[in-house]
Amino acid sequence: MGYSLQLTLPELILSGASLILLMITAFAGDRSGRLVTWLAVLAFVVAGFVIPGVTDVGATAFDGLFIADSFAAFSKILIYVSAAAAMLGAMGWFGRDRDYRAEYPVLILLSAIGMGMMVSAGDLLTLYVGLELQSLAAYVLASFQRRDNRSAEAGLKYFVLGALASGILLYGVSLLYGFTGTTLFAGIAQGLSEGVSTGELFGIVFVLAGIAFKVSAVPFHMWTPDVYEGAPTPVTAFFASAPKVAAMAMLARVCVEAMGPATFEWRQIVIFMALASTILGGVAAIGQANIKRLLAYSSINNVGFALIGLAAGTQAGIASVLFYMAVYVVMTLGSFFVVMKMRDEAGQPVETIASLSGLSRTRPGLALAMALFMFSLAGIPPLLGFWPKFFVFEAAVQADLTWLAAVGIATSVIGAYYYIKIVKIMYFDDPAPAYERSGFGVESALILLSALFVSPLGYFLIGPLSQVSQNAAGALF
Amino acid sequence: MIQTFVFYLFATLVIASAAMTIVARNPVHSVLWLILAFFNGAGLMLLLGAEFIALLLIIVYVGAVAVLFLFVVMMLDVDFAALRAGFARYLPFGTLLALVLLAEIIFAIAAWNIGGIDNGVRAAPTDTSIPNIQALGTILFTRYLFIFEAAGLVLLVAMIGAIVLTHRVRSGTRPQNVSQQIRRRPQDATRNVDQPSGQGVQL
């Protein structure tokens, strides 16, 4: 028991911190918002430092329910960093309208506990409870601005569709449990290794469908544009980063550890989702007029590319998925931080792409940062965004999926069209009314950091990052 | 012998009260008949040795679902006469649903006759010598302790969420000030007056 508790130390610290911070918010009220946010960031830092498995080999806790290996460690660090960044960005955004409430960081902390459980799951039950913890906090966050009808609508939509997806996932879990006799990943793999029965196949399909909803892969993506558009911008930034990493890592672990012997079966599903997501994410984004909707389709598109790496099913493939998610999170967070800066003269948030026109003349720094993120998302070589795509396609080619890589490259060209269109609007169109000036705050610092990360300076990170992601992926095989 | 008798008692009562649920004219009576049906169903589960499911049936269905039904029936102004008016119109659709249900029951019995599911690699084999409530409790608080605690966090999130989304500070209310009430002493609030008769009271 003591050893098990030691392995779950990050989750324990975050749970304890969320309870203490909840007490602070309950007694000190909303004026403690800033203090609670910084304390929550501190909790993330502490939890990040005590993650086991960074140095020692992976170990299981609670009879295999919880796995603390380097794969989980990599994903957790990514989750904690992006959750903390999304939280810091939110502080200034909400604070302007004086509707920042101190429960916001507490809910993100609780959501991060769920995400940690998702990536560390060694059992379908851990996976499900972690997923529910993450999602339930996310539903509340989506409708956090109660007075805004769009926010309430986004929360309700997300809740109803998320509950449906949970139902589908649970149905798959019950089928897998019924036909293999266990919910442990290792036991399921053992059951599947004797040949995949029809019942087990149905279980695999339903589990994958439920998880596909969480990573918003086509054909389970319908909620994404609406929820991303309606939710407050910092919440959207959070949705597009940490939960995506958690769901993607969870999907990779389920595919490899639980369904490893059924690789032939799940690979077809993953390939279909990858193709559909890259194509739809690329084509549907072209006509969008709202920057948040555009970034929602961009995230669908990016998930499709990461799924190409997963379809390879090899260690190199999983490593490329992790590398992809690490770079994707920074690019997406950076673009959303820029969107958070978009406020008209009266201080009201604006979200239309048209309002970006001529940004290079009114706010050259902001325009440069946005252009960097857009070029990087499009995968233009001098920037860091090129490398994850490269690794993903390389893994696919090595796994004899050359045609899949070819289709992926073709769709990334479609995607490049709308990313570069934004750059064109910012640099060559007549200036729209300028945005409101704001001082250099936490948001600007975060934009600067992410811009530096995706800029050619990020090249220094490629070596260590690919090394670490290789190690992490090795834990699954 | 006594088991057979009790089984037939419960089984007859389940069917009778289920029929009464449908036939009863007053919707409140319908819900009460439904509760009786749940209780008898729980009795049947007890006979099968599934006391956990029996208690669950009472706690969840009677304690929560049926009471919720009662609230809905009593609070909402539903015109049940109007609802029943379309009986002939919905009869074909209802018959179809009934046939689907019948087919499912036949399939289920056929599948059950083929044999049970092979649980060879089951993680926690059931010990038949201990009652199943005890078995569930033991496994829940040892092997699945981690998930049990995490489920507690899920409920905490639900609580926080409900408060965050609905709580608002109203102005113009007169809330109870507990500390002020406690600080108040008898000598501040009362006084003894030697009241002469025939004179007015000074307040």
Descriptive account of the structure:
The complex is a heterodimer of chains A (477) and B (203). In chain A, strands 1-2 form a two-stranded antiparallel sheet. The two termini of chain A are 27 Å apart. Chain A is built from 21 helices and two strands. In chain A, β1 (59-61) and β2 (66-68) form a beta hairpin. The radius of gyration of chain A is 21 Å and the shape is globular. Chain A has one domain (2-474). Chain A has helices at residues 2-7, 9-28, 33-49, 70-96, 103-120, 124-142, 149-180, 185-192, 198-215, 223-230, 233-240, 242-258, 263-284, 291-312, 315-340, 359-362, 364-378, 386-398, 402-428, 442-454, 459-474; strands at residues 59-61, 66-68. The mean pLDDT of chain A is 89. In chain A, α7 (149-180) runs antiparallel to α10 (223-230). Chain A is an all-alpha fold and 477 residues long. Among the domains of chain B are: 1-78, Up-down Bundle (Four Helix Bundle (Hemerythrin (Met), subunit A)), CATH 1.20.120.1200; 131-166. The longest helix of chain B has 28 residues, at 87-114. Chain B has 203 residues and is mostly helical. Chain B is built from nine helices and no strands.
Number of strands of chain B: 0
Q: For the largest sheet of chain A, list the strands in their spatial order.
A: 1-2
Distance between the termini of chain A: 27 Å
Computed over alpha carbons, the radius of gyration of chain A is 21 Å
In the CATH hierarchy, the third-tier topology of the domain at 1-78 in chain B is known as Four Helix Bundle (Hemerythrin (Met), subunit A)
The proportion of residues in beta strands of chain A is under 5%
Mean pLDDT of chain A: 89
Number of strands of chain A: 2
Principal-axes shape call of chain B: extended
Q: CATH superfamily name of the domain at 1-78 in chain B? A: NADH-ubiquinone/plastoquinone oxidoreductase chain 6, subunit NuoJ
The helix/strand order of chain B is HHHHHHHHH
Structural class of chain B: mainly alpha
Number of helices of chain B: 9
